[in-house]
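User: Can you help me understand a structure? I only have the sequence.
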Amino acid sequence: MHNRFDQFRLTALGQQLEALIDSPQRYTEYAALSRAEIPAVSAIVHDLQSRFPELAADQTARQFCGAMVGDVMRRHGHALLRPRGRVPGSYFSYGAVWSPLPQQRSFAELLQQLAAMPALVQHSLAAVPAAQRRQRPAGTAFSALEHLCHLRDLDRDAFLPRVQAMRQQQQAALHGVNGSVWAVERDYQAQDWQQAVDGFAAARQALLAALQDCDAAAQARIAVWEGVRRLTLAELVADMAAHDATHLQEIDELLAALAGEAV
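Assistant: Let's start by predicting it. Here is the structure, written out as tokens:
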């Protein structure tokens, strides 16, 4: 989930919504709707309308709901089929459509997905006119330029150091970063577009190079995330692929917003 929701998640409303959305019973509903190619977020529309009427005027809260459902689906191994499917009822114009069944991907398949990301991003953002590259419409997380800078810096300054630490240390201590803070501190909006494009491609190439020769033993190496969660290198790579998928979804929302559509 994007860092822009970190503060909202800590509010009383955010915690109430998370309790509603992230439960085994709800996942069963999300999975059933996905088998019918209906956006998973449709499962909570009735409860939101009846229990959370204030969401009708709270775009951030509604977007948090969609992001939280996405987190649940990715955690259970579902892949994004379509970023924008029609949601019955009100509160949501569109919602993500997820794969009918969880998808187990091999380490090699995850690396292939990571390798494809720079070209996918460049293809998607090629439709953004130069005059709109720094625009951040209401309801979107990043501008097109900020997406590129964020992906570049995360590969270079977070993902690659984590992989290196796990390969060199036993139970390496890993920590998260706040991409929204980086966007401000590093002034992404003032950076050069082509340098960001090239920088992301180079950073992803370096990340993949660090992962290419990982055998089964390397993939099973353990790290400790924020002192709480233990995860393998293979799981870390799966998290990276999920992060990529989140950005592709957000870029689709950005393109829709720039075109004047509701997000």
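Now, to help you interpret it: Residues 15 and 124 are 34 Å apart (CA to CA). The chain has eleven helices and five strands. Let me know which part you'd like to focus on.
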